[in-house]
Structure formats: structure tokens, C-alpha cells
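Give me the fold.
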Amino acid sequence: MSYYWPLLLIVGSNVCYHIAARSVPGFINPMASLTVTYVVAAIVSLLLFLLTNQGKPLMAEYSNLNWSAFVLGFVIVGLEFGNICMYKAGWNISIGSLVCNISLAVLLIFIGLLIYKETMTLQQFAGIAFCIGGLVLLNMK
């Protein structure tokens, strides 16, 4: 179960995320909504840190940070803003997320191969071809 619970958490959180992103009122500035989102996220993160810190002070943990935490901050704002704008532009919740996630998966395959030296099987390459074919079919009008 320790292998699968993160996947369940991600899938469940993503379902709630897309429902919430799709429900942001069209008349509100997305950045106003994201400000509240990140205040709530900061509070939840702090509370979870306090519950799971194993006696380490928060400032000591901050001293161990590298560039990734800062880049994630910028990237997450881009993700949130992009998703809200995608839904405001009229994408269906059933298609917009699928197109983004398949596109992301295909790009990450190449990043995994080129940067992280991961390997792939013929079966996995066939899966990529089906994903790309699916993207084409999803976007045909």
C-alpha cells in the first residue's frame, strides 16, 4: 500500500483540483483567487510540517532548501493560472486536463530519456504512439 497511496492521493487531489479550478467564477481575477489558494496552502503546509517534523525546527529545515522549492513556487502559480484560464477559455473539464496530461507525459518521456538516462521498452514506445494518436483524435474538429 505504501507504493500506491501516493497515486491515490494525487488522483483524488487532481479530481478535486480540476473541479475547483473549473468553478472559479469567470468574473474574478484569477490572481485574487490564487492568493487565497496559496494562503490556505501555506497554512495547511505549516500544520502538516508541525505534525510530521520529527522534532526538527522549521528554520533548520529551511536552511536545507535548494533552488527547487523556489522554482516550484513559480511553476505552481503558472500551473494554477494556466488551468483556470484554460477553463475560462471554454475547455471542457473532460478534455482540457486530458490533453494537458497526455502532452506532459509525452514530453516527460523524452526528458527522462535525454536528461535522466531512463530506458524504454518497445511496448512503452507503442503506448506513446497511442497517446499521441489520442491527442490528435481529441483535438480534431
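Helices lie at 5-22, 30-52, 58-62, 67-88, 93-114, 122-138.
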